[in-house]
Amino acid sequence: MQGPVNRPEGAKGNRAAYLVVLAGICAAMHIWKLPPALPELQREVGLSLVDSGFLLSLVQMAGMLLGLLVGLFAEKIGLRRCVLMGLSLLGVASALGTILDSRVALFLFRAIEGCGVLMVTMPAPGLVRRLVAPAYLTRVLGVWGSYMPIGTVIILLFGSWVLSMEDWQALWLLMAGLTFVMLVAVAVWVPPDALQAAVPQENKHEDTSWAMVKTTLASRKVWLIALCFGVYSGQWTAVIGFLPSIYVAGGISGTTAGVMTAIVGGANAIGNLGAGYFLHRRVPVRTLLYTGFAFMAAGAFVAFALDVSATVKFIAVFLFSAVGGLIPTTLFLLCIRFAPSVRTTSTSVGWMQQCSAFGQFVGPPIVAWIATLTGGWQWTWVATGTCAAVGIVIATRLAKAI
After folding, report:
1. What percentage of residues in the chain have a pLDDT greater than 90?
2. Least confident piece of the model among 25-29, 373-377, 382-386
3. Are 218 and 168 in the same domain?
4. Is residue 93 part of a domain?
5. Residue 91: pLDDT band with limits 50, 70, 90
6. What are the φ and ψ backbone dihedral angles of 207, each rounded to 5 degrees?
7. DSSP sequence for 238-263
8. Is a pLDDT exceeding 80 seen at residue 351?
9. Alpha helices in 78-146, H assignment, sequence order
10. Model pLDDT for residues 190-213, shown as the tens digit of each residue
11. Are 171 and 317 contained in the same domain?
């Protein structure tokens, strides 16, 4: 049975943990490499809008369906080994996607990439916990919570630049090469998973797969954390995902719209890093969650409901993303701190990721449905505000539970 990794001393452990964060950023880049390439893929492969939407959502389907199972798998084979397998899947799928570029192959390799992303990002918080000393955990998790916005802004800017000179296959090959470099780095500098001591005979039933799943799903705290992450991720993904369309509809050029979206998406890292700092300073969890959801509700209301200047709208949606970033880092810390046991850390994070993926999967269609019914984006704040209100209610119950 695989167990904890060997914890290196001091700075070595911190460096290894930051390398795990870089692996997460690399995985996030695979998620967001598709949007800049969609116009070319639609022309070259003959993708319809429906095909494009399904291709975008395939990455989230893996997390939505397999989060808990991959968490269980990671605990069984070892967290580091799971990350290495995920990076391998991402690199191979991205490379083969340039050779087998039919529509069916694109869907197949996108689904494989979704599994790879999950296998990298799901065990990472538990692996970070095992690499760093407890006193530094909140700081490193603050950086980990930024993996998605950092990866998003890098690939939106870098990918657009590459695609302005080369075709989409070049971007896929570059991402494959980067992923294999990251694979070697993790294999060399992150300590191997150590063997766990034998489980006493009378406690063996607690270490079975079914027992770990039952223990995870029986935890009220894990459920509250997971649901809170779901209502956060659903509204953030919906707003960021449709920003380019909203900007273009407002008369802003496609290139400028892409840069503005990258800035807003990247701003989420500010809140994530800030949460790590505030948690280290023992700011109450309730305060951070309330602040994040309140700014998301207010930012969406100003940006979509009020007749204000484009500058004010941009500032509002910037704050929506930046201050909302307080939420994911806080929830990651709570998830690994209040997992029912050390052995269920990955399954707890897996369930949280599964609820997050569900939110990301249903959030954008709901916002698009409202926009279709109302003939514009002016009622978007109703959907995001509802998510924020539900988030505050869950945060209240979560604060009482811990």
Report:
1. 41
2. 373-377
3. no
4. yes
5. very high
6. -100, 5
7. HHHHHHHHHHHHTT--HHHHHHHHHH
8. yes
9. 79-99, 103-121, 124-131, 137-144
10. 999 875 544 444 444 445 777 888
11. no
User: DSSP secondary structure string, 2-49?
Assistant: EEEEPPPPHHHHHHHHHHHHHHHHHHHHHHHTHHHHHHHHHHHH---H
| Domain annotation covers residue 166 | yes
Q: Tokens 């690199």 belong to which residue? A: 91
Residues 240 and 162 placed together within one structural domain of the fold: no
Find out whether 367 and 242 touch, Cβ atoms under 8 Å: yes
1 in helix, strand or coil? coil
Residue 10 has pLDDT above 90, yes or no: no
Cα–Cα nearest to 322, from 283, 258, 269? 269
Please tell me the total number of residues recorded for the chain in this structure. Answer: 402
Residues 105 and 166 in one domain: yes
pLDDT higher than 60, residue 254:
yes
What are the start-end ranges of the E strands in 184-243? Answer: 193-195
Nearest CA among 85, 82, 87, 78 for reference residue 27: 87
Q: Are 247 and 339 in contact (CB under 8 A)?
A: no
The pLDDT assigned to 197 comes to 45
Query: What is the domain extent for residue 35?
Result: 1-193
pLDDT tens readout for residues 154-176: 988 888 788 888 889 999 999 99
Among 162, 193, 224, give the residue marking a domain's end.
193
Question: What are the phi and psi torsion angles at 144 (to 5°)?
Answer: -60, -40
Report how far residue 358's alpha carbon sits from residue 379's, in angstroms, rounded to the nearest whole number.
22
Q: Which residue has the tokens 């704050």?
A: 319
CA 382 to chain centre: 24
